[in-house]
Amino acid sequence: MHTSDIVVDAPQPVSAVDSRTYAIDRAVEPLRWVFRWGSLVMLLAMVTLPFVQVVSREILSAPIVGVEELARFMLICSVFLALPYVVAAGASIRMEEILAMLPKPVIRLLRIAAAVLCTATFAAMAAASLIAIGTNLDNATPTLGIPYWIFLGAAFVSFAMTTLESGIQLVKALQDKPLYVTFPQEQEPEEEIDLPEEMRPH
Predict the structure, then answer these.
(1) Do 174 and 119 meet the contact criterion of CB atoms below 8 Å apart?
(2) Would you give the end-to-end CA distance of the chain in angstroms?
(3) Which one, of 193, 187, 198, 133, lies nearest residue 160 by Cα?
(4) Are the C-beta atoms of 166 and 118 separated by less than 8 Å?
């Protein structure tokens, strides 16, 4: 079997490691679990609610008041809850191929600078969300009367968690460790899948 020669000291794109590899990742794993599954629940509700409304309106001729507003709320919450997951997994656009062509000391400095900037930015956004909550305690949506502080609370929780994730990446950048994580549910199966002959790679 042919294997390509890899120069160990050559700059490589930032790789991801299992979320259980480092103690700092294991410490926040329960929080990450809540955010991942919370975003999935919100996404499922966002998809289900319009379907229920169509059935109620078109088949039962009894539309449910406020379903569209609630679906929009679920969309907002699903985006906010998924943001820390995107940052932790490095799933955002980050031009890794261009970064890998730079000298290794420059790459390290850029990773540190990016982590500092992200941590400061998300911390400022969390603080702004908290201030906005305090000034909108009496406001609510027109149909269902959902308080605005719930929307803004989702933003605050999201930005606070993303600040934590960015801070963890800063610590890793200073220690020159891989920044991003993968989760156990995303790992490839250890045993090879028994595919039919026609589907096996040749």
Answers:
(1) no
(2) 13
(3) 133
(4) yes
- Residue 13 corresponds to which tokens in the numbers above? 């794109």
> Could you give the CA distance from residue 118 to residue 122 in angstroms, rounded to a whole number?
6
Pairing of strands 16-18, 180-182: parallel
Give domain limits for the chain.
16-185
Q: How far is CA 199 from the centre of its chain?
A: 33
What are the angstrom distances between the C-alpha of 55 and each of 45, 66, 87, 104?
15, 15, 37, 58
Report the predicted TM-score, pTM, of the whole model to 2 decimal places: 0.77
Which pLDDT value is given to residue 62?
A: 82
Q: Which two tokens stand for residue 153?
A: 């609370």
Q: Give 32's Cβ-side CA count (13 Å radius).
A: 23
User: Is 17:187 a contact under the CB 8 Å cutoff?
Assistant: no
Least confident of 18-27, 72-81, 160-169: 18-27
Tokens of 96: 């890794």
Task: For residue 180, list its beta bridge partners.
Answer: 16
Whether residue 61 has pLDDT greater than 60: yes
User: What is the pLDDT, as a whole number, of residue 193?
Assistant: 58
Cα gap 153→10, rounded to integer Å = 45
